[in-house]
Amino acid sequence: MRNLNWLWLSLLAVVLDQASKLAIDASMTLYQSIPLLPSFNLTYVHNTGAAFSFLSEAGGWQRWFFSGLALVISVMIAVWLTRLQKHETLLAAALSLVLGGAIGNLIDRLAYGYVIDFLDVYVGSWHWPAFNIADSAITLGVALMLLDSLGLIKPKSQD
């Protein structure tokens, strides 16, 4: 249970994600786009699919499939966190970010049947699929897991 103290990071990801989505939903209309910086807009969209709108036109069953998948993965991550060694702090932080992101998007799927996305990065007329804070937490968590597994980030030695 020693690495469950990293769950504050999961909670932070969920709170920031849900607060940002509620703010976007309350202040923008669907498909509205607000330019903020060159190559970056706030663009309010609904995603009924998974990453990159995968299966978004599948007819509705994907809501429950992706919700169930997120729930199973969240439980697996929570169990994994409890089994980490005390020195595996980077992996604990990474897993906590992934867990928070998964829960943030799961809340949307269960509450609305879609995920609210609004971060729109683009170059010229090419737009990366819109994403949100939960997606960012998942991406950062996976990147940290990769760095950890490749040994590219070494913990400070404890003398």
Structure description:
This protein has 159 residues and is α+β, with helices and mostly antiparallel strands. It has one domain. It contains four helices and four strands. Helix 2 (61-83) packs antiparallel against helix 3 and helix 3 (89-112) packs antiparallel against helix 4 (133-149). The longest helix is centred in the middle third of the chain and has 24 residues, at 89-112. The mean pLDDT is 87.
What labels describe this entry?
single chain, alpha+beta, 159 residues, 53% helix, 4 strands
Short structural summary:
The chain is α+β, with helices and mostly antiparallel strands and 159 residues long. It has helices at 7-27, 61-83, 89-112, 133-149, and strands at 33-37, 40-47, 115-123, 126-127.
Q: What gyration radius follows from the Cα positions, in whole Å?
A: 17 Å
Spans of at least 5 consecutive residues whose pLDDT stays below 50 are: none
Instruction: Enumerate the strands of the largest sheet in spatial order, edge to edge or round the barrel.
Output: 1-2-3-4
Q: Helix tally?
A: 4
Mean pLDDT: 87
N-to-C span: 24 Å
Q: What is the strand content?
A: 15-25%
Helicity, as a percent range: 40-55%
C-alpha geometry: globular
Question: What topology emerges from the helices and strands here?
Answer:
Elements: H1 7-27, E1 33-37, E2 40-47, H2 61-83, H3 89-112, E3 115-123, E4 126-127, H4 133-149
Antiparallel strand pairs: 1-2, 2-3, 3-4
